[in-house]
Amino acid sequence: MxxxxxxxxxxxxxxxxxxxxxxxxxxATGDVIGVVGRNGDGKTTLLSLLTGRIEPDSGTVTRSAxxxxxxxxxxxxxxxxxxxxxxxxxxxxxxxxxxxxxxxSIVEHLLDGVDLDGRVGDLSGGERRRTALVAIMLGGHxxxxxxxxxxHLDVEAVSWLADHLNELRAGGTAMLIVSHDRWFLDAVxxxxxxxxxxxxxxxxxxxxAYVLARVERQRQAAANEARRKNLARxxxxxxxxxxxxxxxxxxFRIEAANSLIADEPEPRDRxxxxxxxxxxxxxxxxxLAHVDLDLPGGRNLLRNLTWSIGPGDRIGIVxxxxxxxxxxxxxxxxxxxxxxxxxxxxxxxxxxHLSQAVTELDDTERVLDSVNRLRRxxxxxxxxxxxxxxxxxxxxxxxxxxxxxxxxLSGGERRRLQFLRLLMGEPNVLLxxxxxxDLDIDTLNVIxxxxxxxxxxxxxxxxxxxxxxxxxxxxxxxxxxxxxxLLPGGVDQYLEHRRRQPSAVxxxxxxxxxxxxxxxxxxxxxxxxxxxxxxxxxxAKLGQRIERVHGQMxxxxxxxxxxxxxxxxxxxxxxxxDGLEVAWLEAAETLD
Length: 592
Prior knowledge:
- The protein is of the alpha/beta class.
- It is built from 22 helices and 20 strands.
- Helix 10 packs across helix 11, helix 14 (367-374) packs parallel to helix 16 (411-424) and helix 21 (522-555) packs antiparallel against helix 22 (560-591).
- The chain is globular, with a radius of gyration of 25 Å.
């Protein structure tokens, strides 16, 4: 196999901090390499060095002449007036680019529902991210470099992307992927690079093989019992007892793994946790009775939902983007009222809701002060007492990061601090909305280890199927038609159900049969035009209200109480806008 990129004796530092020191590595045709490491250890810097976006302080990087490299960064630089069509297919019309089945499939799966002639400046953050990903996928590159490609993708899109990247690898495309999504890494990668302590260690195989190799290295370095009971070993035990697909990698040394985990207990004692949870919570936790939730425009997110959630339940929730997962958590937290029906919380619950927003943090406050202000000493739900500084250290805040102002933290660090502050309140019910966003794998291991012994009711919304399977006992799905159903077969059952639905993915490009079908009647056309005009007027007014709320949030950045009120108002307005946009698309389809 021909090498595409070679690096020799690379060195890179910023100020007094050395990120990479004397690193040599290479990447060849067909290699799919996952890059892992803690936030701030240099993963993105390594990608930028290999692709020529930045220059090393020492050493050399050699790239194959004529090799095309596509780079998906964590931020995009689209021209505000460019259209989606301009970005992904160079402005070419549908009848040109959609004649290629592969191109059509990529656009259908990642940009379903996005107007290709709309301006990228008008897209949401998630839509911009998917647009950038599609542009890379359609570029025909020899090397694809992806920095957190699964951000803003639901579990179905992540599964499709993994399948598609495996097809590209079979065709010889090389890939370099930074991701915290461990299922995704195991599904697509042939090798793993771990960036740590200014060096890069290489491992053969996917994520499961990397965990085994890392545990072996730790065992050889320290054979004592305390060292043996580390988080990586617990995760390995779970991997080996989990889905058979995780053990199918030929490089995964099953005999060695079995010897390492021979006396390792299950990650959690479900019966003991259930019994302890009942003593803390009683029998009633959250009950939803005949709940309906309608959005403006007639869209029904939930229909006649009756659900009794008990003490110690550990529930994962999946569904396509826009199916109402975050809204369901807000209903359970009584932060939003249902259209019809009743939501009742038990008298003894102490609920903590980890939302996707981080507005409750005061940017001017320092990290240690922020935690100390809540409680200097706390007794965790596990019964273990811990000081604020101990918890901060477990969550990666040490040294000068303890006195750093919150406004100077990275997105991952803010997310870690947000989760830590929730734990300080000693909740017995946790609602987690996309908790893995912006977190590195080591931090996820810490959170999973804490949740293993946490005796409360846990409800998780996440696109990270590894995390869902790791911490939850059952999985439910919002099917998009107002129903919420139990999935005995977990995420795999959900994906199989979606694959069997012919309408699960709709094409942005009209088919021949669509063009040949009869159009709407004159009366239907007139009604659709009236409806479009009405909806456009409402959307314009909503846009102005949302802008005003954003302005007020900027004015009251240091007022926690006011920010909480404004965030609730913004959430309601955004939900209303989403509903109107769906109604607008349905009306527009009548005129197509």
